[in-house]
Q: What sequence folds into this?
């Protein structure tokens, strides 16, 4: 794959008019907290679903679908992406998990992190970091039926961040998308819903679920501030969708 260097604006303003406003403020805080819990539950369900197999498909799929729906009910779904994921899971029966043929083109469609972040500073954090970026467009894996494949990269994100003065965990982000065309020739093998990709001695296992192919990259998201005194890491699930 390609080296991912991610360096990390949330501006929060609270105006308290009088003591009569405190219950309203508490309601807002409770709503935010509940939404954060829902997002965290979805992240964990997504990680669990990455290891799905024939025996536990219905159980893990149902848990993931319920977590997505709970996040929609609690946090909203402005762009409809969460509902699209729910719809894609269907009724979570084993009949739904018929895998797409591996041969062909797969497009990178998601970076699923452990905790939602607001990289584009629009006030709405997302678990899918690609929703926060204009980079990594048209990144593909093209599988041939002879056991070879080509991983195609088009860009990478140079993301810097500063800690907002007066806070310890709020950041101001700057993102630069840098064009970088790079192809990597790899080999692959498939056993049931597990696809193993080998790239110059580096081996990774991927999960094939319907028309999605995904893999977990431990600490795949890494960032630090300018002097390196603050470091952020998150595990990443890369998701490619069959075209």
A:
């Amino acid at each position: 794959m390609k080296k991912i260097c991610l360096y990390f604006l949330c501006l929060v303003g609270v105006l308290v008019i009088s003591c009569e406003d405190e219950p309203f403020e508490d309601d807002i805080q409770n709503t935010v907290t509940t939404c954060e819990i829902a997002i965290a539950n979805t992240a964990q369900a997504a990680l669990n679903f990455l290891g799905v197999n024939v025996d536990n498909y219905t159980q893990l799929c149902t848990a993931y679908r319920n977590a997505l729906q709970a996040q929609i009910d609690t946090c909203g779904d402005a762009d409809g992406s969460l509902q699209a994921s729910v719809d894609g899971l269907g009724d979570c029966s084993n009949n739904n998990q018929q895998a797409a043929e591996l041969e062909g083109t797969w497009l990178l469609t998601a970076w699923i992190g452990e905790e939602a972040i607001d990289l584009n500073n629009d006030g709405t954090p997302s678990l899918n970091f690609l929703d926060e970026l204009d980079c990594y467009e048209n990144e593909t894996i093209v599988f041939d039926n002879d056991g070879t494949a080509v991983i195609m990269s088009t860009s990478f994100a140079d993301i810097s961040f500063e800690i907002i003065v007066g806070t310890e965990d709020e950041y101001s982000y700057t993102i630069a998308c840098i064009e970088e065309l790079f192809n990597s020739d790899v080999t692959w093998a498939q056993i049931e819903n597990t696809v193993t990709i080998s790239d110059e001695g580096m081996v990774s296992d991927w999960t094939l679920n319907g028309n999605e192919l995904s893999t977990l990259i431990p600490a795949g998201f890494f960032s630090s501030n300018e002097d390196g005194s603050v470091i952020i890491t998150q595990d990443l699930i890369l998701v490619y969708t069959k075209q």
